């Protein structure tokens, strides 16, 4: 009997994670930002548009600590929250 399993015939080709996939925060470096964001979501019946400032802060933390790729905040949809431009929400 021969086995149909030829492990040498296929080679594994690693690839980068899909856009939006990023490492877990194993050391809790951005935990406080995540908790603020989640609290905002709960307080606002999960209406994420009301928590954009907290979301931006959380993503900035992740980028600063290399837990996700650096992206311009404008590209992530936070251009209106930069530099105190009109229309910026401040939920402190």
What general outline do the C-alpha atoms trace? Answer: globular
User: Which range does the strand content fall in?
Assistant: under 5%
- The tally of strands reads 0
Helix content: 25-40%
The tally of helices reads 2
Q: How large, in whole angstroms, is the Cα Rg?
A: 20 Å
Mean pLDDT: 80
The main β sheet shows up as: none
Q: How widely separated are the two ends?
A: 70 Å
Ranges with pLDDT <50 over ≥5 residues? Answer: 85-92
Helix/strand order, N-terminal first:
HH
What is the structural class? mainly alpha
Describe the overall structure.
It is a single chain. By secondary structure, the protein is mostly helical. The chain has helices spanning 31-43, 52-64. It is globular. The relative contact order is 0.14. Residues 1-23 are annotated as: Disordered. Belongs to the COX19 family. One of its GO terms (biological process) is mitochondrial respiratory chain complex IV assembly. Its main location: cytoplasm.
């Amino acid at each position: 009997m021969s086995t149909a399993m030829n492990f040498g015939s296929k080679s594994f080709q690693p690839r980068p994670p899909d856009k939006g996939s990023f490492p877990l925060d194993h050391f809790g470096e951005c935990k406080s930002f995540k908790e603020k964001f989640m609290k905002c979501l709960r307080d606002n019946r999960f209406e994420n548009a009301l928590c954009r400032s907290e979301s931006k802060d959380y993503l900035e933390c992740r980028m600063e600590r290399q837990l996700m790729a650096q992206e311009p905040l404008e590209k992530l949809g936070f251009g209106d929250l930069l530099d105190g431009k009109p229309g910026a929400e401040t939920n402190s």
